[in-house]
Specification:
This protein starts with a helix and ends with a strand. It is elongated and about 75 Å long. It is an alpha/beta fold and about 230 residues long. Helix 1 packs parallel to helix 4 and helix 2 (about 30-45) packs across helix 3 (about 55-65). Strand 3 (about 105-115) and strand 4 (about 115-125) form a beta hairpin. The protein contains 8 helices and 8 strands.
Length: about 230
């Protein structure tokens, strides 16, 4: 990590510690996207969040390999990292981005041109990049903890995931009696409606299917899941 970027990260984390926000972790993908934008700022000027022909923030960070459900950016020009940090802390919008407790990753780039420093900081809330099989396994584990056995064949649940309504016809002699579809960037818990169904103890088995998220900008990471209860 270049010294100027490292200093800005240290200053940011010190400010976040004083505000009660958690520390930011360095993200190489965000840093790569920040550097590309910073180079444009240094050559195009005046400073901006987007130049002609450049992808927007979500697309350029996503194309660089970052996975997130929240993305923000600070830009500045100054004579030193300390001055740039001070500018951000005294600008309400930039301060809000830097101290946002919801972000946990950052990539920072600093480019020096003719004695002036151009800086870009891209902040995000990081989301794990999971395959459909990994999503299904994670949800299945939560279902097992509720005392439900998992049907090995996930094809019926995957078919349900790819549709917006209805219950797919039975396969292998199993006909689902309830289907739950949802989409989220977090797989930390089951939906409340599904929890309520499981609490009735009427269902002994389930199948889990994952498919491509719907209606979401492709640069943002989200997971779509369907659970069939039998």
């Amino acid at each position: 990590m270049p010294a100027a970027a490292e200093q800005l990260l240290a200053l940011a984390n010190n400010a976040r510690a004083h505000s009660g926000a958690g520390p930011l972790r360095w993200d190489p993908s965000l840093a790569a996207a920040a550097r590309q934008h910073c180079l444009l700022m240094a050559t195009e000027g005046p400073i901006s969040h987007r130049y002609g022909g450049e992808p927007d923030l979500a697309n350029r960070t996503g194309q660089a390999g970052a996975h997130f459900d929240l993305i923000e950016e600070n830009v500045a020009v100054g004579s030193s990292p300390a001055e740039i940090h001070d500018e951000w802390m005294h600008s309400p919008g930039h301060r809000s981005n830097l101290l946002n407790p919801k972000v946990n990753r950052v990539g920072i780039a600093v480019v020096a041109i003719r004695g002036v420093l151009y800086a870009t900081a891209d902040y995000s809330h990081n989301v794990a990049s999971l395959s459909h099989s990994q999503v299904e396994a994670q949800v299945a584990q939560m279902l097992r903890s509720k005392g439900v056995s998992i049907v090995a064949d996930s094809s019926q649940a995957r078919a349900a995931c790819a549709t917006d309504s209805g219950i797919p016809s039975s396969r292998n002699g199993l006909q689902a009696h309830f289907v739950m579809r949802w989409q989220d960037s977090s797989l930390s818990r089951l939906p409340e409606a599904l929890e309520e169904k499981l609490a009735t103890r009427r269902y002994r088995s389930a199948s889990v299917g994952s498919c491509a998220a719907q209606g979401v900008d492709g640069t943002f990471t989200a997971y779509r899941v369907a659970v069939l209860l039998y």
